[in-house]
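Propose amino acids for all 333 sites.
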């Protein structure tokens, strides 16, 4: 076989082989951990450092502003910040700006509270600790002590107890969400009389301590659309609430001006941003291991490397085989 034929065969490779190659390099990292390094950036570190300074007297909002189409990027961002807050005993309010996004909020909770998840948190439902609440036991540490004195034991592998209504409130979706944000600057309970599970928010200790967005210390919007700007417009500019963005990769560059102007404290961009947050959580002993975003970076990197190699090989074949000369002749040059 002549050299020219080799180059020609390389240029005319059946695209099905390329699809097969992409499929293989995308599947293998799920079974073999490459552990490719992920370095952290300042815009992600700033969110981590901010949350890390918060404690039981503070509170944060996580707004699930994404649909299943961007779940691979946005979900790990929200889950990472949620775990970070639970580790520091920071109460978490969770909302969604569209009905479809409400399901993403529930999926995140199911993942974090699932005993099969490495580093899960053990959830205690609102009604299950009603007797302690009615007895006036609402402080986190005294609540844990009283709960365990009733014979409850933290399951093996659990990172800690999370009490519904004390450590988190799943508020969910409410219509015309931009006006909901505006309304929450006055009263959260007015906008959400009940949570996503039908519990009265007025009975929740965390809403007695944090009545409006004015008593909230940070809002993270994990977003797949421009709706993330609502938090800047109606909360940051109106009452000075610190905002953090968790955005898809294609959105990230468009929203850097908000970061540069100081309107947001930090930004996670795409799967890479979520993986960076997971690395920070693991390095600081907050989670026992990295999670889906870090694994996803191995998949993404392997696919990108293969594509780059194919492009290089194609260019080598194009020029080494003299096909560039034929192209010039056909073009009349």
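Proposal:
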């Amino acid at each position: 076989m002549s050299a020219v034929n080799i180059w020609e065969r390389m240029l005319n490779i059946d695209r099905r082989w390329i699809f097969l190659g992409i499929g293989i390099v995308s599947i293998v990292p799920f079974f073999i951990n490459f552990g490719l390094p992920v370095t952290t950036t300042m815009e992600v570190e700033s969110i981590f450092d901010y949350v890390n300074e918060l404690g039981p007297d503070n509170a944060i909002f996580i707004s699930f502003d994404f649909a299943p189409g961007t779940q691979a990027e946005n979900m790990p961002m929200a889950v990472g910040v949620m775990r970070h807050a639970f580790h520091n005993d920071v109460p978490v309010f969770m909302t969604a700006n569209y009905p479809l996004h409400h399901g993403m909020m529930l999926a995140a909770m199911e993942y974090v509270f699932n005993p099969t998840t490495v580093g899960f948190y053990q959830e205690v439902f609102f009604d299950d600790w009603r007797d302690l609440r009615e007895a006036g036991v609402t402080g986190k540490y005294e609540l844990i002590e009283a709960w365990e004195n009733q014979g409850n034991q933290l399951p093996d592998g659990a990172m800690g107890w999370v009490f519904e209504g004390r450590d988190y409130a799943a508020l969910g979706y409410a219509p015309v969400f931009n006006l909901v944000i505006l309304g929450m600057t006055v009263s959260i309970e007015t906008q959400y009389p009940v949570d996503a599970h039908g519990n009265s928010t007025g009975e929740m200790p965390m809403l007695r301590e944090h009545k409006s967005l004015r008593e909230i210390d940070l809002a993270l919007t994990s977003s797949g659309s421009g709706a993330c700007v609502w938090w800047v417009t109606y909360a940051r500019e109106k009452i000075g609430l610190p905002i953090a963005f968790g955005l898809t990769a294609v959105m990230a560059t468009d929203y850097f001006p908000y970061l540069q102007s100081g309107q947001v404290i930090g930004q996670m961009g795409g799967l890479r941003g979520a993986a960076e947050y997971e690395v920070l959580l693991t390095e600081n002993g907050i989670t026992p291991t990295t999670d889906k975003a870090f694994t996803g970076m191995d998949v993404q990197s392997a696919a990108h490397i293969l594509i780059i190699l194919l492009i290089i090989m194609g260019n080598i074949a194009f020029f080494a085989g003299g096909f560039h000369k034929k192209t010039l002749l056909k073009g009349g040059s």
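The radius of gyration is 25 Å. The chain has 16 helices and eight strands.
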